[in-house]
Specification:
single chain, about 140 residues, alpha/beta, Rossmann fold, 4 helices, 5 strands, about 40% helix
Length: about 140
């Protein structure tokens, strides 16, 4: 197989659901290929006024973890689930791919930033910073 471990960045959007489907299509060819399912909880900051917002983000992150763990239960390949917490989603995704030894990142793009209409700001930043291949799943029109 041309890759041994795939990181999928998942935020619940249609584009990230499509990214997960694409990754599952790749791993179906070899049950030894590992899968790392990642959700990024973007924290608002350290300001005490933002504590309530951060609590809501933490609750959403737990719901995302639960959803990813349910999905992972149906994948025969070795699969791990991680919730990454920080202020820079792209940096967190790239760092996780490095630490996990992933050789492919699959993620969605809604085209709401970065190069307008082509890539979102996070997917654009990941493609620029990643030392490994990045496969972008576009949201259906």
């Amino acid at each position: 197989m041309w890759c041994s471990k795939i990181l999928v960045a998942y935020d619940g959007s249609a584009a990230s659901q499509r990214a997960l489907q694409m990754a599952r299509g790749i791993i179906e060819t070899d049950d030894a290929v590992g899968l790392v399912l990642v959700h990024v909880a973007r924290m608002a900051g350290t300001d005490s006024a933002m504590a309530g917002v951060d609590a809501m983000i933490a609750q959403d992150a737990q719901q995302a973890r639960d959803e990813l763990e349910r999905m992972a239960a149906f994948v025969p390949n070795p699969t791990t689930v991680q919730v990454l917490v920080g202020t820079s989603p792209a940096d967190l995704i790239v760092r996780c791919a490095r630490e996990e030894g992933c050789d492919l990142i699959v993620m969605g793009s809604r085209g709401q930033g970065g190069v307008k209409g082509f890539l979102g700001s996070v997917s654009y930043a990941v493609t620029k910073e990643s030392p490994v291949a990045v496969l972008i799943a576009k949201e259906d029109d």
